[in-house]
Design goal:
Low-confidence stretches: none
Structural class: mainly alpha
Largest sheet: none
Order of helices and strands: HHHH
Radius of gyration: 14 Å
Oligomer: single chain
Length: about 120
């Protein structure tokens, strides 16, 4: 599978894993809603980058996805500290998010270097 398609697939799988986990969380709906939004936005921006109007637009979409991954990690940590996630849930989701984030960093760097 091509690297870009692999990243798109990972972003979908991650958004599904986060949403499945979020449906189990009670009592912090404001935080859960934020987590759902930013975690699914990662993949949405990766998908949008596919049809970017320019290299600058492509880079911008990937940078937005990168920011959303950082925000996702914030909400995961906050919800974990509120004791609404098990250590395993937190670790697994954070690891998956970190993998996507590192791939996004590499993609942005490559795109900028090839500009």
């Amino acid at each position: 599978m091509e690297d870009k398609n692999k990243l798109r697939e990972q972003s979908i799988e991650f958004a599904i894993a986060v949403s499945d986990t979020c449906y189990e969380i009670k009592g912090v709906s404001v935080y859960v809603n934020q987590l759902l939004r930013c975690s699914s936005s990662i993949g949405a921006n990766i998908y949008e980058a596919k049809y970017a109007q320019s290299r600058a637009d492509f880079i911008s979409k990937l940078e937005i996805a990168l920011k959303e991954s950082s925000e996702t990690e914030y909400w995961l940590e906050l919800i974990y500290r509120k004791k609404k996630l098990t250590e395993k849930q937190y670790r697994d989701l954070k690891t998956a998010c970190g993998t996507i984030r590192r791939k996004l960093i590499a993609s942005v760097s490559t795109a900028k270097n090839n500009a």
